[in-house]
Each structure stands twice: as C-alpha cells, then as structure tokens.
TrEMBL record:
Protein name (record): Homoserine kinase
Binding annotation for ATP: R80, P81, A82, S83, G84, L85, G86, S87, S88, A89, A90
Pathway involvement of the protein, from the record: Amino-acid biosynthesis; L-threonine biosynthesis; L-threonine from L-aspartate: step 4/5
GO molecular function annotation: ATP binding; homoserine kinase activity
Family: Belongs to the GHMP kinase family. Homoserine kinase subfamily.
Gene: thrB
Catalytic activity, reaction form: L-homoserine + ATP = O-phospho-L-homoserine + ADP + H(+)
The EC number(s) this enzyme carries: 2.7.1.39
Sequence ranges assigned to domain GHMP kinase C-terminal in this UniProt record: 197-266
Chief location: cytoplasm
C-alpha cells in the first residue's frame, strides 16, 4: 500500500488561461492505494458527498485504465470540488504517482502528465493539463503543445474560498468567443511579465502580470463579492489578485509578512457581501509525494 499526498493547484493566474499553473503547499488530497484484482473507490473529506465513487465516473478510474493498474483506492479530499483549486486534478495526479510506483510502470513525472489529464477529461470533458502538471511536477508550470516547463519559486499566496460552487463547465460557458487585438497584446504582455516575476521571485511583477482583460472579468461575474474581495486584498497589501482556475476561489500573491492581513481582508470582504469563506495562507509547493510506502513491510 502507498499513501500519496497530491497538492491543490491554481491554474491560469489571470493572464495564462489554460497555460499557467502553480502547485500550492496546501491544501492537498491524500490517497491510499493498494493493488487489487478490480478497482474500488472510497471518497471521504471535503465535498466527498458530491464525488462519484464509481471508478468510471471518477478521475482516478481513467488513470487506472490508462496504466492498466487495478487498485483499491481511498481518497481523503482536502481540496474541495468545484473550488478552482484543481480538486479533480489532485486526485488524478495522486493516483498516477501511486499506480506508476505500485505497478513499476516506469513513467517519468512528465510522462504522467497526459496520463493524469485523461482523468481530467472525465471531470470536465477535456484533457486539460494546466492543473495536473503542477500537481505532478510542483512549482510553476507552463503547458504548451507537447511541452511542459517547470520553474521553482518561493512566492507566497493567499487563496480565499467562498462557500459557493462554480462548476468548470459553467465557468467555460461564460467565456467570450474571441478577443480584440489590443486585448491579445495586453494579455501576452501580462503573461510575459508574470513569468519574469516568477523567475525573479518578485511578487509585484507577478501581481502586475495577473491582470487579464478577457477571461477574468467573465468568470468574476459568477463570484458574488469578487470586486469587494479583490479591492480589500489590494488595500491590505496584496501585489495582485485574480480568480483561481475557474473559480470561485480567489488567489492573491503577497509580499513577505502580509499573508495574514491579506487573508483576513479577503474573508472579511466576502462576509460583508453575505458569503461565508475561508482562507489558506499558502505558497508554491511540491508535486505529489509518496509519504508512506508499505510495499516492503509485509
């Protein structure tokens, strides 16, 4: 039996729609996985009542099929579904790491990215890699056709999660069909600035690069209190704020020493709009890790 910790992630970061992703130091899913003749699944933890335990309807089932690795799997969800924090990706990434190890499949972490993305297709209808890549590889990731680039970073973030649900499918329905040339130029410039900020561990460059004139305004409209929370975070010292993934989570990049103040400001902003919320003071984290290996203990 293996126990794997798979981290939450934040995709897009504003200007990097379907391209950028970052692994977070918390929260995380914990999976216990052992070989079996047929696959069974148990899900407990945050939002588990909304997650199907039928492997054919769960992200991990697709990973099992892709690796031809039946298993008994228990998922303790620390990453709430429909949060904008890569909940389905965390489960898929954790399963990929565990099954690859248990069955000695020999895949590298980079090679497991498209495997875990098969699981994302079960959850969202498309094999997106922007969440599974950082959950597997850690750090800040850039996903392009046939290529995933990873960069390390020591930046600090606050993620504020309101007690509302925004599904990925609904968040995609509100997206515009296209962008004007000036919007495209602005987005490319901001994405480049954000990448430079990651390379320099500069929260102010990252924050400036989080601005996005196309995707974020559309998705922010689905989050009650977003503008208030955004403004409160900036007033409290956040260097930049945007929608985390498809929402409703809101992520802020913070200069050192300001996480607690920013977290309180964001929770207070939601509460003033009549929405309960909680905040995670987090940072750039590692990819999925095997935290216990009982293969040789029998």
């Amino acid at each position: 039996m293996l126990t794997v910790r798979a981290p939450a992630t934040s995709a897009n970061l504003g200007s990097g729609f379907d391209v950028f992703g970052v692994a977070l130091s918390g929260p995380a899913d914990v999976l216990r996985v052992e070989k079996a003749t047929r696959t069974t699944l148990t899900v407990v933890g945050s939002g588990s009542q909304y997650i199907p335990e039928d492997p054919k309807k769960n992200t991990v089932g697709a990973v099992v099929d892709e690796l031809d690795a039946p298993a008994r799997i228990r998922i303790d969800k620390g990453v709430r579904p429909a949060s904008g924090l890569g909940s389905s990706a965390a489960s898929a990434a954790g399963a990929a790491v565990a099954l690859n190890e248990l069955y000695d499949r020999g895949y590298s972490r980079e090679e497991l990215v498209p495997v875990a993305a098969k699981g994302e297709a079960v959850a969202t209808g498309e094999a997106h890699k922007d969440n599974v890549a950082p959950s597997l590889l850690g750090g800040f990731t850039i996903v392009a056709d046939g290529c995933v680039t990873t960069m390390e970073s020591d930046l600090s973030f606050v993620v504020c999660l309101p007690d509302v649900v925004v599904s990925t499918s609904n968040a995609r329905k509100v997206l515009p069909d296209g962008a004007r040339l000036d919007e495209l130029v602005e987005t490319v410039g901001n994405a480049s600035t954000l990448t430079a900020g990651i390379a320099r561990d500069d929260p102010y460059l990252v924050g400036r690069g989080m601005s996005d004139p196309v995707i974020t305004p559309a998705r922010a409209s689905l989050i009650d209190g977003y503008e208030t929370v955004h403004n409160r975070a900036v007033e409290a010292g956040a260097a930049g704020v945007t929608v985390s993934g498809s929402g409703p989570g809101v992520i802020a990049v913070c200069p050192d020493g300001l996480q607690r103040r920013v977290a309180a400001a964001m929770v207070g902003g939601f509460e003033d709009c009549g929405v309960d919320a909680r905040a995670y003071q987090t940072g750039v984290g590692e990819g999925a890790q095997i935290v216990r290996n009982e293969r040789n203990s029998e």
